[in-house]
User: Fold this.
Amino acid sequence: MSFNNHQIKKFSRQLILKDFGEEKQNLILKSHITFVGMGGINIPALLYLLAIGLNKLTIVDYDKVQLSNLNRQIIYSVKDVGKYKVRCVSNYLKKNYPDVNFLSLNKEINKNNCSKILKKTDIVIDGTDNWDSMLTINENCVKKNIPLLSASVLGYDGNLTLFKNNKKKHICLECIFPNPKKIELPRCETAGILGTTSGIIGTLAAVKAIEYLTNNKNSSKSTKMIFFNGKKIELKSIKINNNPKCRLIK
Assistant:
């Protein structure tokens, strides 16, 4: 794919990067990302990926904007409170990225619709905050061999994992949490959340998505969970191993 003058100017600062160039820019332009949840993680991830050249995407959410969202969900304003998030994001895309191809789904992802929603996507970024959705997305990504970026934040901390869902090496969310239905996730409305934490994890999600979509040869072959400690300003990672008893092993 050849670039027009507008694209050359727009992407000039990344096109001159060592080990990036036109080939990887084309890979981003051709990729399709599905964002599940238009909250504190996926909003910054979406904004950076759009700026870098993402041209095909699906956004999924069923919530309305609340005033308490505005400390971290930076695409919304006070005028958006009470409106559906996907409609606000759709309006933003139409205004600022009129050439981007996107599908906007104002619905909750569940076992009945997940397979259809994730159809024809190259990678899924899950920014939801409830186990039912996370487990459903994880299971469908495993079945369809779709890479899944699973991220969460709470308080000052956050974490992020890229599950590549390779047929030859099974590692998924349920390998880490074999009895997930027994786990109760603390929520932002009770435990709190510093807005910048969401921004950092969302930005890291964008970085990992780019790394995967551009076939970065320097990326780790192992599956790692990345942890961010917002009080100490530290990043750490641990290797995730296959769980031979995982119920989703094919």
Remarks:
- The chain has ten helices and eight strands.
- The first strand starts at residue 32 and ends at 36.
